[in-house]
Amino acid sequence: MTLPTYDHRHLPVLNKGLSHRPWFGALVYLAFGVFWISSSDFLLGAIVTDPELYSQYQTYKGWMYVAFTALLAWVLLWQRTRAEKESNQIRSLFSLTFELANVGIAHVSKDGQWLRCNARLCQMFGYSEIEMQQMTFQDITHPDDLNKDLTQMEQLGNGIRREYNMEKRYRHKEGHYIWTRLYVRAVDASQFGELFFISIIEDIQSIKETETALRETNMKFSALLDSGADISVQGYEADGTTFYWNKASERIYGYRADEAIGRNLLDLIIPEPMHAVVTSGVKAMVESGQPIPSAELVLKRKNQQPVTVFSSHTLIDLPGKKPQFFCIDIDLTEQKKQEQRVAYLADFDALTDLPNRQSFVKRLSQVLERSSRRPQLVAVIVLDVDHFKNINDSYGHAIGDELLQQVSQALGRLLRPSDYLARLGGDEFAALIEGIEQPEDAARVADKLLNCIHRVWTLSNGVDVKLSASAGISLFPLHEQTADSLLQGADSALYKAKSEGRNTSAYYSDGMTQSARERLTLESRLRNAIVEQQLSLHYQPQIDLSSGRIVGAEALLRWYDPDEGFIAPSRFIPIAESSGLIHEIGLWVIEQSCRQGVLWLQEGLPPLIIAVNVSAHQFQRNELQQQIADTLLSSGFPAEQLELEMTESALMTQHERAVGMLSSLKALGIRLAIDDFGTGYSSLAYLKSFPIDVLKIDKSFIDQLPEHQQDAEICKAIVTLAHTLGFDVLAEGVELAAQQLYLQQIGCDCYQGYYYSKPLPASEFSELLKRVGLSD
Ligand SMILES: Nc1nc2c(ncn2[C@@H]2O[C@H](COP(=O)(O)O[C@H]3[C@@H](O)[C@H](n4cnc5c(=O)[nH]c(N)nc54)O[C@@H]3COP(=O)(O)O)[C@@H](O)[C@H]2O)c(=O)[nH]1
After folding, report:
1. Are residues 353 and 423 in the same domain?
2. For atom 28 of ligand 1, which residue has the closest CA?
3. Other residues' Cβ atoms within 10 Å of the Cβ of residue 162
4. pLDDT tens digit string along 613-648?
5. 18, 445, 667, 690: which one has the fewest Cβ atoms less than 10 Å from its Cβ?
6. Are 457 and 401 in contact (CB under 8 A)?
7. Helix, strand, coil: what percent of the chain each, to 5?
8. How far is the CA of 556 from the centre of ligand 1 (A)?
9. How far from each other are the two terminal CA atoms of the chain, in whole angstroms?
10. What is the ipTM of this complex?
């Protein structure tokens, strides 16, 4: 393509402006010449007095005019030549500038006609200058840009404004549009004869394309940053001010971008205790240019909840720009949850949320380890739902699962917090029961669990399913010593229970199953005995050794079963204790003793101490003091005549509590005695802190008196000790006169035993007292 050349003939206005100046100079010269000659004439006429000289001047004056005119003509010619030369130079310079300009330059008429276009413009639009001059700018303006352009051009025409800028598109000769930046300036009509516009048109197509590409890249980049649902990207200034916050950041941290941007990192997601570390870390990163090492961090959400992320950091430190840094945080919440879930499933059963077999074995091993240091009876009870397979087969696994969930929840509610329930798998559960007192306690717990399962279960779909279960029990240390063997033992006991017809429990050892069943049967009979009022009290006299008088009576519980006859307290009291019936029975004993004491007083018998046995189980309950106070009040029995007997072991195992309990009981005005003294592990320090009145020497030290040297010495020592501490001493189980005599010799205060009397029913005791009392 040949470049269009600049033709100055197309510039009539400009030509006119440039060519009038030499004439003006010539006129000035001419005026000056006429003035100079005229004034010379006048001056010479006045100055030159010599007529000859003046005449000569007049003669040559014509030549002078000629010479002057010639000079003037030469000056004029020279002036014009110079002006034209200058004009040509300027024109060629202008032409060169116009053509060489790397922006499009055009003169446009007020109608929009292209008057003159430089080479760059022609090249830009693909037209020759001639072709351009045959078009208006409207012809090749993009329709979307035309109105704006025309409006602004009109404003130039109206003189409202002198120039305008806009970005607009022109259609290239080949049909595509080119983005340009247009600058238009109106040229004053008064100066150049007619209104026209100078347009400077810059090709910004590549800029636009770059911009578009950049925008697209940005959009892609943004979309990319936003696409990672769990990848938070945050941009911060060096001082921690947020300038970028992607979608994932919104989701992970809970702040919308518009809430986060402009706020400081520390205020947003850094927990207070981490502020100092983060501040110094960022400072060090900005100063050293080294990013803070990636790490797993626990940051905080908008709702202040912690969120675990893996955080990486990138420093952007461009020359001349303030440093910025990006944090790329990967949300580990789900991963953590998964990890926790995996860890959870290693120990827990997914269906019931109960501990699994592995956890059960682990827990059992720990308990056994502890129990080997502090001996205790531990029971493992394995439960299996009877015929559960039939339920799955009949109703489907979903129903089976729901049943297992319901059963596990019911069993969990039944057990104490210290017990441990697990699902071993399928329909098999296991319970770990610590600190049981009697072997049959385990069967009691097993029966409780079996009874819980043995009922109709209503499922969410309305189906009723009747369940029963069987249980196997093994005991540490009686049956096995290790966790695995205890579980195996309980499993084999379970199969015994199943083979015995299901809905029952069995111990690992047959003998124990037998005795447990007997004890549980006895428990049920004892419950019945309370209702049927088969319990009564017998009273054994307590005799003062120095006077030989009956000074008191120990109330001893008796159970008369119509079929079996008297059932010994040593048989049923432990069952009452392990079943909890002791509380009901114990209260009855206290009330009945007080009522009887009052009756005896009313009969006119001398005031007697009535000693009542209080089980360690009763002593552990706080209501004992209140029960006694209430009983004394309701019965009217004098407090100083009531004596409570507590075993040495019950007091010594819970010393601190015992001191408090005994003090509160003592405050009621009653007497306190330590029963079975010598059989427990008394501490003298403890003993002296107890507010007691009597020490009862256990029968085992009396049995071989006075021959047995050691027992004799022990009894003597107990008497001395008791007296030193200010207690009375009572020897129990005295069967022989020699025993009575020896006790008297060593200063023992009182005794009781078959030697004087067996425990007697109240009426017989009263007769005895009347008999001996009256005779004494
Ligand atoms: N918590 C409660 N415990 C009670 C209650 N009543 C009794 N008991 C405790 O039961 C254990 C057995 O009692 P029991 O069979 O009544 O035996 C007592 C006496 O009958 C017996 N005794 C008395 N003198 C003699 C004797 O000379 N020889 C002999 N072989 N036995 C004799 O001793 C028992 C009295 O014991 P103690 O209480 O230690 O003084 C027994 O531990 C009772 O405590 C009750 O109501 N509540």
Report:
1. yes
2. 733
3. 12
4. 999 889 888 889 999 999 999 999 999 999 999 988
5. 667
6. no
7. 55, 25, 25
8. 6
9. 157
10. 0.95
